[in-house]
What does this fold into?
Amino acid sequence: MRALLLALLLLACPLTAQATGQITTHYVGAGYGWVFIFQLDHGAAPAAANLTLNLTTASTSGMRARVVDADAKATQGTHTEATATLAGAGSLVLSFLTDVRPGSHPIVVVVQPLTAGQTVFSGALQSDIGSLTGAATQYVNGIQEGLFIPQRLYAAFNRVIDTQSTFSTTLELDFGASARPATFNFEGSGSGLTEIRIYDVTDGNTLLQTLVAPPSGNLATMALVTTTAHSGLMNLRVEVQGNGSAGSVFWAVWLTDGIEVTGATGDGVPTLGTGSKGGGGGGGCVAGSAGVAPCCAIVVGLLLIARHARRRRIGHTTAAL
It folds into this structure.
């Protein structure tokens, strides 16, 4: 009996418990995407986390999944994102190794159909260390064409360059009550481009950074942009200048230190998605901890079984006497 209980205990509680964030069943249509934002707590000691995203679908449209470490993106870390695709129905498995660090950091999971059509999916995000909690979900349009702002965490812009070759979008950034400068990572890429310019237009028209494309018009770069000290709201304008040929552009503003994107005007803004903090947006991810609670429940059950078996054995022994 003791050997059986020990075996069950080892099966129930592996030596290394995995943190799991559940992604319940969601529907996503063409041109849209689901954004799931988890908080990954590495603990007090610096450590890297091995993340595994497992998703399944019976939809023939398949899916594309992306795992993004928002803080690593903002600081130009070594490990920033990973992507995977699934053609048709089946299972998608995506592995991602974070940078070594302590504390809690947001991990963004983006899921969208691979081809035209609708995809219904579910699954989980797992970490081999720490704990995962679900902070927010959001169903967004503009993930392929326009501007989207997942839960104020960052802003990203996608657009095809055809009849319109210039785009201007102004972001409203909230710095909080105390005046301070900020350094954020600006990511820009695309084709058919001349340059991308970033301005501080809060109290004027101050050019902060220019990303210049080579003669080919192809751009793929990142730049750390530093602002002057601000408190409250700051207006950041991003201008895209095409070279007259067909192409596309992607840019993203990755923020840290509690600075949030609270609004936007200009090109791409009508396609902003909606969502709510705390797991709104029509479904959501319900995240567990490091798997300790289920394990403890199983342990308690095994202990009760052992106690009951011991009482029966004592009773049988007394009767025999």
The domain at 144-270 is CATH 2.60.120.380 (Jelly Rolls). Residues 292-320 form the longest helix (29 residues). The chain has two domains: 16-142+273-290, 144-270. Confidence is low (pLDDT under 50) at residues 3-16, 271-321.
